[in-house]
Structure formats: structure tokens, C-alpha cells
Amino acid sequence: MTASFCLLYYARLFMKIAVPKETWVGETRAAATPETVAKFVRLGAEVEVEAGVGVSAGFTDEAYIKAGAKIVTDRSRLLSEADIILRLRKPSVEEVVLLKRGAIHVSYLDPFNEKALIEQLAERGITAFCMEFIPRTTRAQKMDALSSQANLAGYVAVILAAAHSNKVFPMMTTPAGTIAPAKVFVVGAGVAGLQAIATARRLGAKVTAYDTRPVVEEQVKSLGAQFLKIDLGETGQTKDGYAKPLTEEQIKIQREAMKKVCLESDVVITTAQVFGRRAPILITREMVEAMKPGSVVVDVAIESGGNVECAQPNQITEINGVKIIALFNLPGRVPYHATQVYANNLYNFVEEYWDKANKRFILKLEDDIVKACLVTHEGKIISDRLLEAYGQAKQ
Ligand code: NAD
């Protein structure tokens, strides 16, 4: 074996994983932590991260270097030489052009709103995985970024509400009088909603919650909250555990039933979403106007359209003394932990398909999780649900 062949063979042993710095305005999170870098290095991968990749989340370049990463300042080179690119937000169309044909790209992709981007990923021969499509199965739980981030969003929503409320949350018995606990109403008791309930309860609030999926009632009660019952007729959930969309008539009945609870509440937190669709408007302007001055409404669903009629995207506004908080990227307000869990989701994903003997990512096209979240491969869009959403035939 010649020395040059040996070198080539040795070089090919290492898959190069690249982690660019997030460029989305206001994004504080990152796709890797020094801990996940060290784990990738132990798997036998070469890891390159862009300079400053984790600074806004509290991770220094020195910590990534110590973990075994190489710091790269030339972003174009970082992206164009990588075998696997890990990031949080979707790439820009301009940056997809830089990627190597056959490169593996793992990130959120916002695929229902980004047809052109998905088509470009396909055209450029990128093997793109969509984090929004990680299935809701037991095996995939450790990779489920929607859940890891929604959980933190639920926590942050309550902390923001408490900071903006004119009341304290817990009951306090003092010589100067007894303070009654704050009343919090949580609409939508999925991952974010359940964490919001748990956090508000920990702060001592009296919590009521509502969700259209009847299975949630027991989970709500087990957290010490009351469940609001509304008879909407047939509601149910999809096989993935997501809510089914309601009819206009059902939404009307729901709003009417929630109105009274909103009027009595000091804080309303809305987290109701329907996967792949605009979030339903559940709190009308009229309902907000009728709430007590000093109350707070937090619209956690704002990035998918919002549940509150008068919420202004990424703003805190006030109507008749009621504050409406509709800030984007709530997990980004606790970037250290949001990065920790997101980076773990990505590591767990890559590790699941890593051939430890040959130190390579193996694409298992027949695997359940891969089938669900692989959207483009070898020049084609291969996700059935995207082809259906785009009105295209299987390629
Ligand atoms: P989501 O973000 O899509 O929606 C949030 C909540 O809003 C859901 O509970 C939904 O039922 C509710 N909702 C929708 N329309 C509503 C309306 N009109 N009024 C009130 N509520 C409404 O959902 P999610 O938080 O991502 O999770 C949905 C479910 O999937 C949860 O029960 C969760 O436990 C389950 N899940 C399972 C796994 C797994 O098994 N691996 C992983 C994650 C989540």
C-alpha cells in the first residue's frame, strides 16, 4: 500500500460534521454543545464548528475546542466540505448551493411553507432530514426536537406571564392580609401546555386547562389543575397524537365556553396548535377586552399564526390594561438549556444510524424514523406527506 493511498483511506474514515452559527435574527440557540461535540468525536467523526457558534447560548469557542472541535471562520468552506451539516433553523436557498452533493443536512425546515427550499435541496442532491417530522414514537422520543423545545416554551411562557402580571402567583398568608393565588388558564395541554401547567402550579397558581383531545384530562388533573369540560362532539386525535382541526361551529362553541374562564383569570396561556396548519383563533379581541385590567395573555402559538386574535407577532401589546405577549422563539430565552436538549436530539439522531465499526452514518431507508423525516434524497423529494401537500405525484 503506498503512503498516499494509506492517507486517502485514513482521510475517508472520518466523516466531517459541520455546525454553522445560526443566522436567524434573534436566534440564541445552537445545534451543538461541547458535550455533543465530544460524543461525536468519540464516535470517530471530525467536527468543525463556526467561530462563535454557541456564544449566545453560553458555550465558548474554547469549550468546543477542548471537546475536540475545530473552529472555522470561513462559513462557506465549513458548509461546502461537510458530509453532515447540523443546524437549528432552515438553511437559506443561497447556502444550499454551497453544500456538497450527497451531503446529509439535519435541521428544522418549515417544509409546509418552504416548497422552493425543499425543491432546491432535492435538486442539489442533498439528503435532508426535517426535525419537524421526527415521529411521535417511543424510539424517537430522544430525537424529538418539537417536544424538547415546546417543553421549554411552556416554562418560559409562565415566567414571562408572572413577570408581567400585576399579581403574585402563590397564596400568601401575611399579618397584612391574605393574598389569594393567581388564576391561570392554559388552553392546549400538549407538551408546552403541560409544562406551563406544571410551572404555574409550582409557583402556586390555581390552574384550569382545556384541550380538545379528551385523553389529556387525566394528565391535567395529575398536575393538580382543573380540566374545563366543553362538549364539542367529535374531536379526537391523529395517529401521531396531534389534534384534529375543529369545524368553525365547534370553535364558536369552544370560544363561548372559554369566555367565562378568561374573565375570571389573571393569566391566559394559549398553546393550541394543529400540526401543519395555522393555529386556531380561540381568544377573540372581545374576550381580551372583557378581561380584568392587569391580566396577561401569552400566545405561545404565535409562530404558527397565533391563538389570540389581537396578538401582534413578536410584540407585547396592551388592550384595556390587558397585556398580550406574543413573542417569538420562547425557548431561545433559555438558550443554554434549549441548546443542550436540541443538541442532544441531533446527537441521538445521528448516533442511532452510526456504524461504530466503520465510523460512518448509514442511511437506512427502510427505518421508521428515517422514512418519516427524510424529505429529499438523490435528487428527489421523497416525503409522501410533502408531495401530497405540494400537490405533486411521487417522483
Ligand atoms: P401541538 O403543539 O400540535 O398542539 C398543542 C396542543 O394544542 C395539543 O395538545 C392539541 O391537542 C391542542 N389543541 C389543538 N387545537 C385545540 C383547540 N381548538 N383547543 C384547545 N386545544 C387545542 O401538540 P404537541 O404538544 O406537540 O403534542 C401533542 C400530543 O402528542 C401530546 O399529547 C404529547 O404528549 C404527544 N407526544 C407524544 C410523543 C411520543 O409519544 N413520543 C412525543 C411528543 C408528544
The gist of it:
With 395 residues, the chain is α/β, with parallel strands linked by helices. It has helices at 3-13, 34-43, 61-67, 75-81, 93-96, 115-123, 145-164, 191-202, 216-222, 248-264, 285-290, 335-352, 368-373, 384-389; strands spanning 16-19, 46-50, 70-72, 84-86, 104-107, 127-130, 172-174, 177-179, 183-187, 206-210, 226-227, 267-270, 296-299, 316-319, 322-325, 354-355, 360-361, 374-377, 380-381.
Write the layout of secondary structure elements.
Layout: H1 3-13, E1 16-19, H2 34-43, E2 46-50, H3 61-67, E3 70-72, H4 75-81, E4 84-86, H5 93-96, E5 104-107, H6 115-123, E6 127-130, H7 145-164, E7 172-174, E8 177-179, E9 183-187, H8 191-202, E10 206-210, H9 216-222, E11 226-227, H10 248-264, E12 267-270, H11 285-290, E13 296-299, E14 316-319, E15 322-325, H12 335-352, E16 354-355, E17 360-361, H13 368-373, E18 374-377, E19 380-381, H14 384-389
Parallel strand pairs: 1-2, 1-4, 2-3, 4-5, 5-6, 9-10, 9-12, 10-11, 12-13, 13-15
Antiparallel strand pairs: 6-18, 7-8, 14-15, 16-17, 18-19
Describe what this molecule looks like in 3D:
With 395 residues, the chain is of the alpha/beta class. It folds into 2 domains: 3-143 and 335-389, NAD(P)-binding Rossmann-like Domain (Rossmann fold), CATH 3.40.50.720; 150-329, Rossmann fold (3-Layer(aba) Sandwich), CATH 3.40.50.720. Helices cover 35% and strands 17% of the residues. It has 14 helices and 19 strands. The protein has helices spanning 3-13, 34-43, 61-67, 75-81, 93-96, 115-123, 145-164, 191-202, 216-222, 248-264, 285-290, 335-352, 368-373, 384-389; strands at residues 16-19, 46-50, 70-72, 84-86, 104-107, 127-130, 172-174, 177-179, 183-187, 206-210, 226-227, 267-270, 296-299, 316-319, 322-325, 354-355, 360-361, 374-377, 380-381. The strands form 4 sheets. Strands 3-2-1-4-5-6-18-19 form an 8-stranded mixed sheet, sandwiched between helices. Helix 2 packs parallel to helix 12. The chain is globular, with a radius of gyration of 23 Å. The model is unreliable at 1-11 (pLDDT under 50). The structure holds nicotinamide-adenine-dinucleotide (NAD).
